[in-house]
Amino acid sequence: MKVLVADDHWMIRSSLKHAIGELYKSCAVLDASSYPEAVQTLAENPDVDLMFVDLVMPGLSEFEGIRRLRAGFPDIPIAVISVHEDREHVLHAIEEGVIAYIPKSAEGSELIRALKIVLNGDVYFPRDILQGGRLRTGVPLPPEPRVLPNGGAFTPREDEVMELVRRGRSNAQIAEALGLSPNTVRVHLRNVGLKLQLKERSEIEAYLTGRLPGT
């Protein structure tokens, strides 16, 4: 597995690289100190599987940077690392298609837990912040994220994934057909579920085949 850590503060980069290396000894961790440097690193390393990105870095405004990375590298999941702990930033980040939002103020044990969750291919968003409060330790994944009202727009890759789901293909078959990793397919399905406000893959499949009540 290869991961990119993009943050303009060397201490954050160093801490994340160390933590990820301790969790997964075989994981190769690259780093960048700005959005332009992140783009260059990703272009030179097309096999990057995941990126942890700070919202505020030199080169571009916070969400513009995320949008550029998503547009240029749509198959690489993005986990946000941020100093912002308000609900608006978290929801906006989810709308941009990220798979995680990890506050920089998270305690060590919670940061490690969040890293484990994301590196294992799942999503992480602080429930307390989504519910309008401040961050507390030990917060689990929100069971039902409320994002992208009215569905939003699907990316071309999400359309391809949905078509294969509609045809009854498994995640492994979709990954092989599109030349993606199974983890990336899960990320696309998760984003599709968020946009459709559906939680399970079976619900997405039922929706796409017209078997979900109300479709």
From TrEMBL:
Instruction: Pinpoint the HTH luxR-type domain residues.
Output: 147-212
The record's listing under Gene3D superfamilies reads: 3.40.50.2300
Stated name of the protein:
Response regulator transcription factor
In terms of InterPro entries, this protein maps to: CheY-like_superfamily, EvgA-like, NreC/VraR/RcsB-like_REC, Sig_transdc_resp-reg_C-effctor, Sig_transdc_resp-reg_receiver, Tscrpt_reg_LuxR_C
Q: Give the modified residues of type 4-aspartylphosphate.
A: D54
Q: Which SUPFAM superfamilies match?
A: C-terminal effector domain of the bipartite response regulators, CheY-like
Please indicate if the UniProt record lists DNA-binding as a keyword: yes
Q: Which UniProt keywords apply?
A: DNA-binding, Phosphoprotein
Biological classification of the source: Bacteria, Pseudomonadati, Pseudomonadota, Alphaproteobacteria, Hyphomicrobiales
Q: Which residues form the Response regulatory domain?
A: 2-119
Q: Name one Pfam family in it.
A: Response_reg
